[in-house]
Fold each of these.
Amino acid sequence: MIYIYALIAIVMFALCGWLLSFATRHYSHVDSMWSLFIAITAYTSVLFTDDLSSRALLVLIAATLWALRLSLFLAWRNWGTEDHRYQTIRQNNEPHFWFKSLYIIFAFQALLAWVISYPLYAAVTSARVLNWLDMAGGLLFLLGIYWEVVADWQLMRFRARADHQSSVLQSGLWRYSRHPNYFGECLIWWGFGMLGAASGNHWAWLSPVIMTFLLLKVSGVSLMEQTIHSRRPGYAAYVHSTNAFIPGLPKPERANDV
């Protein structure tokens, strides 16, 4: 029943986001709400759990750190502009998109976030003592958030320079992977999955599997690389020399063949 309460709280928050779109006249703020949707599951579970375990505290700290960091970063990045993805969705769903956006954007993301947040619910409501899987999950989470923060910071600095508008970032973590920020996010979710599974609930493994698929095939790597070639002419050579997702050494001999 606690998990259902979390869904109700997430849907109410999504409704607030939909109402906000009438004032902002765009929909990019749902990106900033995504991580908060998931954190809501952790906090709702805390409200309805009598005795909080060490695992619950560990998950609360991790979820808060991850959710606030990602939400604030995306709010800053999207401030005053609408992501081209939402512009496309709007064009494909007129007329009355103001109403359709309620279920196409906000309700859909709320429901998806609720499903994916299952490991947080499992971890917070468990009374099991900590075990080796908690330690592994915690370490993987820390590595993931370090990787994601550093990658986002390096990309932010690169894009701030006017002479980099059509260039490709190929230094720092971006030298070893074309999407280190998504790789870091993936590690975070496998960390959450381990923390959930450490509670004895093996359904928690489903969330990192879904997130890995989404990052690779739906909203991450695949979506980004559909349009980036036209905006950054050097990207084809970068693709040829650098792994898409899992970090690895660059392949200069292959790059020279282009």
Note: The radius of gyration is 19 Å.
Amino acid sequence: MSKSVSTPGDPSNPTHSVRQALDLSGRVAVITGGGGLLGVQHGEAIAEMGGIPVVLDLDGESARGCAENLAKSFDVPAMGMACDITRSEEVEGALVRVLERYGRVDILINNAANNPKVEDDAFGRHGSRLEEFSLDTWNQDLNVGLTGAFLCSRVFGAEMARRGKGVILNMASDLAIIAPDQRIYQQAGKSPESQPVKPVTYSVVKAGLLGLTRYLATYWADQGVRSNALLPGGVFAEQDQAFLEKLTRLIPMGRMAEKQEYKAAVVFLVSDASSYMNGATLSMDGGRTCW
């Protein structure tokens, strides 16, 4: 399909109206990890602007429940389904169901990622540390965060390229461009070798998403598909007070983000409001990466 060319200054170009540029009416947005903390917020942002959220999650019940809530709250169509994004046949099946229901896909938000909490017992006493980090956990984290994003981009991105227009938004992190300060995870009374740390896979996955963003931005640019990345800072979720005090000292604004504070940025990045933005990263971290 040939690339459409708009003329700067053309009043028929809808991006000249800010309201129209932000409008997502009728646009179908696939959100991976859509039942999670930020996934729900992305779905609400899409629905509030008139879009049609399609919630993919490993937990099908959570995905369907989230879609039902979005449909009721915002009076828009919505769809939820179980999907293991690390399996290509499941991602391809999800595309088939989306096309059967809506006939199109306009937006992909690669949001799914494992996010093991360093204070959890899942790693055992030393398991989060690099020396003890298991190959199985490494593979699981990369499968969800990177392989899943690759497969979804390949399947949904190719469909958008076929139609000549689309947007891919990769949810990265401030830790995609800075190393974690492991001192903020230290716990009193533990020996240095038994202190928990931010797992290596988190940094690797988030940094990898930036490479994927730039690759996709050039690969399908002539077919109307843009790709950008949002780099959010940490979201407040009732974390331990001692951890909060250490973390917020690293943030010029002195606080973590509220979970809804990324909604407007998501709408900007997936709408025509960012129509000339491609291969870019948008940091929203309270200024943490300035230091």
Note: The first strand starts at residue 28 and ends at 32.
Amino acid sequence: MLTGKQKRYLRSLGSALDPVVQIGKGGVTEPVVTSAQDVIGARELIKVRVLKNCAEEPKDAISELADATDSVLVQMIGRNGLLYKKHPENPRIELP
């Protein structure tokens, strides 16, 4: 569970990121989950975009992806979401 201060810190880091995972018309599929797990394992903090052709609501799709990857939904703005998962052995981001 992240505190408000930690979420603010992560939001400030995430503002400079580009989306690296996109959820398309298929929704949250196995390849999307695998891709997100790989990227979040390497970066800890990723930005996800829900494309306009996705049938699901952006908040539902990103929440589903957060659950599937065991990550925390830090922020949701429009069709973009910010996911965080601390690396278990070698964390790159030190939270305040």
Note: The chain has a mean pLDDT of 93.
